[in-house]
Amino acid sequence: MAVIEVSNLKKYYRVYQKEPGLVGSIKSLVNRKYEDVKAVNDISFAIGEGELVGFIGPNGAGKTTTLKVLSGLLYPNSGKVSVLGFTPFDRKAQFQKQMSLIMGQKNQLWWDLPSLDSFLLNKEIY
Questions:
Q1: Which domain holds residue 19?
Q2: Which of 47, 73, 85, 93 could join 4 via S-S bond, C-beta 3.0 to 4.6 A?
Q3: Pairing of the two strands 2-17 and 33-48
Q4: What is the C-alpha separation between 72 and 92, in angstroms, rounded?
């Protein structure tokens, strides 16, 4: 049985496009142009109980967006998502009691400590 199931997940953002300069700013007051940016485009996967996975990819690949959808912070444009039998973006209390998401950056690793010690330090902080 899969603990996490994602089927045809899509998340797009509507982004305002402005022409450069003062003229572009003035034009945008009357006529705004928008573009849809695909953060996550039709991904599917399943993760079973006890599985360890790595979620890797280049910048802009949609890793963070996917994790935010799985945690219920973002609502997808389309697709089906199930985590622990819940639909995350319904944000039910029972789901929220079982779910946690910590977002880290490279600067959280201390250069003079081995990686494991850095992770243990952050574990104690959080």
A1: 2-125
A2: 47
A3: antiparallel
A4: 10
Beta strands in the chain (DSSP E): 2-17, 33-48, 78-83
Q: What is the CATH number of the domain that holds 17?
A: 3.40.50
Average pLDDT, the chain: 87
pTM tops 0.85: no
Neighbour order of strands in the sheet with 33-48: 33-48, 2-17, 78-83
- Indicate the number of domains in the chain: 1
Q: How long a stretch of residues is the chain?
A: 126
The number of angstroms, rounded, from the C-alpha of 16 to the middle of its chain's C-alpha atoms is 21
> If we measure between CA atoms, which residue out of 15, 61, 59, 56 comes closest to residue 41?
61
